[in-house]
Design brief:
Elements: H1 2-42, H2 45-48, E1 62-68, H3 73-85, E2 92-97, H4 110-122, E3 125-130, H5 142-158, E4 168-169, H6 178-186, E5 190-192, E6 196-201, E7 204-209, E8 211-213, H7 224-240, E9 245-249, H8 259-280, H9 285-292
Parallel strand pairs: 1-2, 1-9, 2-3, 4-5, 8-9
Antiparallel strand pairs: 5-6, 6-7
Helix pairs in contact: 3-8, 7-8
The protein binds zinc ion.
Length: 293
Amino acid sequence: MKSVKKSKLSSKYSTLLLLIVLVLVLLVSTMFFADYHGKYLKYDPLKDVSNDRCYYNASTPIVLIHDVSPKYIDEMKEITEILDNNHYSTRTYLFVIVNHANENKLTDYPEFVEYLHELDKKGYHIQYHGYDHIAGEYNCNESVAKQKLNESIKILNNCQFDTNTINYVITPRYKLSKDSANVFLNRNFTIIMDYYILKNRTDGIEKIIITNKEYTWYMPENCTEIAKNVSIVDYKNSLKENNQFTLSIHPKAVNYGNGIEFLDYFLRKTNYDTLKDILSGEYNSKEINENKK
Ligand SMILES: [Zn+2]
């Protein structure tokens, strides 16, 4: 009789203990995932790119999508599917045209805006390309540049984007007057050009050399294999020079021929090779720093 009572009591205790452990596990994992998720979403790899070789070691490529416009919604969906599959959301920057050709105002395309918000939630970076993308629109004077930028920010605000986090710009055709450059830099934009970026630091403007390549401008099908090989060589050289590698792509141009297959190959291969080489010590940071001296 006594032993039955005892075992009943101990089973009661063990159930209680199990419950406590379960609640604790649930609490800790919720906290962990909330924290991880928060960091994951805020991760901004372009922010770290620097000339300071002691501090910065170039790694996996960063993808820059130019000409993000409602005109290319279908092409964009095909591109982002490949990026999603390769876990590239936080390493991808979308350069948006707010009123493409002066007849595609973002506010008139709620489906496209919603799609961009979905990408934003996944960790993609919504950034700025231009107002209408007509000719080299930012090859202009200060007052025109200010007017275009103000109008663009207004449209982006109206589409509920957090304009505080929109601080990277690629101007159409990389054309940019000195006046326009100052307008962007004074508003703390980082300017991405064809082979370098400009950052406004407290002690002046920093110019950082990057390796910015585009292989898929309506690439002929018989060039697919050559492009694959060349891109991997370019990427590895870039790592050795400790320059950040950025892959520029344009919707429609990359969707042509085998462009999408190339994109998938490049992202897969660089992810795999970087990991493999880092593990084998090939891109040891000390080695890179010494090579630079
Ligand atoms: Zn463009």
